[in-house]
Model the fold of this input.
Amino acid sequence: MIPLSSLSGNEFFLNCDMIVKIEALPDTVITLTDGRAMRVKESPDKIIEEIVKYKRKIHLGLPEVE
Done:
């Protein structure tokens, strides 16, 4: 699960395995496997960084790189 913020400022966690695509429109739009689209404050680069960090943590057990 990765931390994200809705455009209204509410913080939530998203199962990154449910992400189909991330688009950088005026807002960042995440499309999920069920077809729903979510607009978030984070940039696509930040979301990808969070996904990599999460996957590294659960699959490889490697320490985070700062």
